[in-house]
Write a structure and sequence with these properties.
Blueprint lengths: L27 H69 L10 E3 L2 E4 L8 E5 L7 H12 L2 H10 L3 E8 L3 E5 L17 H6 L10 E2 L3 E2 L6 E10 L9 E10 H9 L7 E5 L5 E4 L18 H9 L6 H7 L11 E7 L6 E7 H11 L1 H35 L5 H48 L8 H31 L8 E4 H18 L3 E7 L4 E4 L1 H17 L6 E8 L5 E7 L8 H5 L21 H11 L3 E7 L3 E8 L10 E2 L6
Parallel strand pairs: 15-17
Antiparallel strand pairs: 1-2, 2-3, 3-5, 4-5, 4-9, 6-8, 7-8, 8-9, 10-11, 10-13, 12-13, 14-16, 15-21, 17-18, 18-20, 19-20
Length: 669
């Protein structure tokens, strides 16, 4: 930190007069520091907001994709039904054009009749006898014709297990129904002639003979609410209206469609199928916290609006859906709406949910980032406290300097102030060392417990729990590396760093380092090369510190090299028997002004936006230089922008016990 001592010191006045003490101005560095803190915290907060919005958008996209996937299942069912109804309609029309093969026997019940099931017909055929006896042959011919389409009907039943009924309803007032049901409700009644499906199929209301879907209605056969896909049957070669014979219909139950909605991979909320008029075709039984639709006589067109409003939505639901032609989420108040069209039908699939649950889930998943922001605020608070302490010391020293009438005493006071500042710096170093020790114990416990959870020692974990345990272990390990760097720096500054020397082979130093760094290199797509002497070479050194030197250098190379780079570690004996350990990469490189800054503690060169990993404290090269100096070695850095960086650690020949020549036969790691 720059000195905050004022430079406005008057020269000593002649004689014993004491100059007045000038009022100290607030140093500009204070405002700069506060502005920097505000910018850092603002950037952290903005980053959290951006990440929150990204995750929220991801969850929104995920729900929309899942809804479309569920809609595809219903679309497939609707398309199969449409294909089968077309096949049945075509078969029936062609059968009407052929002469009857066999007249069907029937049982008379006053003015009603029923054909008993037998060979060639497993459905139930019931109807009303004609009032005009002359039309009886035409009725018998049509009954015999439609009986021939039974193989097509049975095939459709196999293709559509969701169907409730498949039937042919004749304008001559008879009904052929599959599957067979002996109940009184599953037979022809005159009410069928005025039902919606027959009215909409008649030539006067359907002059083109198109296939259509009905609104939901109560099944007269007792299978609850159903919808039908209906096709008018027109005799082959005939024209409307004379060629109109009746309708082919396939019924789908609300229960079958609701099961499809329940099977969708969506969180709490309500899924509904509605038609163009707002009728509810089917409603998911998984309604989450939203109120269930009752059966108290409320029109089913009102149900979607009630659920929308119960979720916190505002405005008209139909208007919201019209404004969302692409099915994109449109939050309105506290509610969210997703919808997609079911192709080939007048239906829309919608999902209504409360935004509060979605936002809560995203915020819960962001607790590691929130914890990191809190730690950043604590660190900035500590720096500000330290800065203010140094500022107070600087002001005290300035006040002593202004007492020019006692030069000797002023010099002693200034020396005392200097000693006090050095003591404060030592106290800071001791504080860092002490706090690093204090933090490592609980942090190791956190990492250990996270690894225990990942190993599922106490039972299996869910996917999210396993992900969170991995996040805790990874964040703890990263924080432990930072604390170890701070502890090493504190020892170096306090002059307490010593060597625990031993005689060890070069392979025993470099091999573990490669094993540690290779995983990071592979993740970034780097090719990592290792070259060592062909014969064993032993060196007298502190093996832990030398490994730390190589780990720091290789980690920097991995971080500051774009993905897919080349990194090498070469160990060789120089002509003067010194040992050279060189780490080379083809990364961004540095210019001559950046190299000295990179060697200073907490100083980092300008970041390259193409480099993907730039975390750290800026202590790596500083610690490397200190450890190399402890070994009486030298550190050489050669780098140029765009040409990569080469860092060489030279250990003196006095530390080398034996040697060999270099071989490059090991290849990439």
């Amino acid at each position: 930190m720059a000195s905050e001592t004022s430079s406005d010191i008057d020269p000593p006045a002649a004689g014993p007069a004491v100059p007045p003490i000038r009022r100290l101005r607030r140093p500009m560095t204070g405002w700069v520091a506060l502005t920097a803190y505000a910018l850092v915290l603002g950037a952290a907060g903005a980053g959290l907001m951006v990440q929150y919005q990204d995750r929220l958008n991801h969850q929104i996209d995920l729900r929309q994709a899942r809804l479309r996937t569920g809609g595809d299942v219903i679309t497939t069912t609707a398309r199969v039904a449409a294909a089968e109804i077309d096949a049945l309609g075509t078969a029936a029309a062609q059968a009407m054009d052929r002469p009857p093969v066999l007249r069907l026997p029937f049982l008379r019940e006053n003015d009603r009749f029923e054909v008993p099931p037998g060979p060639g017909m497993t459905g139930r055929l019931t109807g009303r006898l004609p009032d005009d006896p002359s039309t009886m042959p035409a009725l018998l011919d049509e009954m015999a014709a439609v009986a021939t389409i039974e193989p097509f009907v049975l095939g459709a039943l196999r293709q559509l297990p969701e169907s409730a009924w498949i039937y042919y309803m004749s304008a001559r007032r008879f009904l052929l129904l599959y599957p067979f049901d002996a109940g009184d409700a599953a037979r022809y009644s005159d009410a069928l002639m005025s039902a919606e499906l027959m009215v909409r199929a008649r030539p006067d209301t359907n002059p083109t003979g198109r296939t259509f879907w009905t609104a939901p209605y109560e099944d007269l056969g007792g299978k609850g609410r159903i919808v039908s896909i209906v096709r008018p049957v027109i005799a082959a070669g005939a024209t409307l209206p004379a060629g109109f014979r009746g309708v082919i219909g396939i019924d789908l139950t609300e229960q079958a469609l609701a099961r499809m909605l329940d099977d969708m991979d969506l969180p709490d909320g309500t899924q509904m199928l509605i038609d163009e008029a707002g009728h509810v075709i089917a409603l998911s039984a998984r309604g989450g916290d939203l109120p269930a639709v009752d059966d108290t006589g409320i029109p089913d067109q009102i149900w979607p609006d009630r659920i929308w409003q119960a979720a916190g939505g505002t405005g008209d639901l139909a208007a919201r859906m019209d404004a969302q032609a692409r099915g994109v989420l449109k939050p309105a108040g506290a509610a969210a709406l997703f919808h997609t069209r079911i192709a080939g039908t007048p239906w829309s699939l919608i999902h209504i949910d409360a935004m509060s649950g979605l936002k809560t889930a995203v915020l819960t998943a962001m607790w590691p980032e929130a914890l990191a922001t809190l730690l950043l605020m604590m660190i900035l608070g500590a720096f500000e406290s330290h800065r203010r302490m140094l500022r107070r010391l600087s002001h005290h020293r300035t006040a002593l300097a202004l007492r020019v009438e006692e030069l000797d005493r002023a010099r002693q006071d200034l020396a005392a102030a200097r000693d006090e500042a050095e003591a404060a710096n030592l106290a800071k170093t001791a504080f860092l060392a002490h706090m690093s020790h204090e933090l490592r114990t609980p942090l190791n416990a956190v990492i250990g417990m996270a690894e225990t959870l990942k190993a599922e020692v106490f039972g299996p974990l869910g996917p999210k729990q396993m992900e969170y345990a991995g996040d805790i272990a990874g964040a703890g390990s990263h924080l432990l590396e930072l604390i170890n760097d701070l502890l090493d720096l504190a020892r170096i500054e306090a002059g307490e760093a010593t060597l625990d020397e031993e005689t060890v082979s070069v392979d025993d130093i470099v091999r573990p380092v490669i094993a540690i760094v290779s995983a990071r290199a592979r993740k970034a797509g780097h090719v990592l090369h290792l070259m060592t002497p062909s014969r064993p070479v032993t060196v007298s050194c502190d093996s832990r510190k030398m490994r730390q030197v190589l780990i720091n250098l290789l980690t920097n190379a991995v971080k500051f090299t774009p993905d897919g780079g080349r990194i090498s570690l070469v160990a060789r004996l120089m002509p003067d028997r010194a040992l050279a350990l060189t780490v080379t990469d083809n990364g961004r490189g540095m210019d001559t002004t950046e190299i000295p800054r990179a060697l200073e503690p907490f100083k980092r060169i300008d970041m390259d936006p193409m480099v993907r990993r730039q975390e750290g404290t800026g202590l790596g090269l500083s610690i490397v230089a200190s450890f190399v100096k402890l070994h009486d070695g030298q550190l050489e850095i050669r780098s140029a922008p765009g040409a990569g960086t080469s860092v060489t650690v030279l250990l003196p020949a006095a530390r080398i016990a034996a040697g060999g020549t270099v071989q490059d036969g090991r290849g990439p790691i």
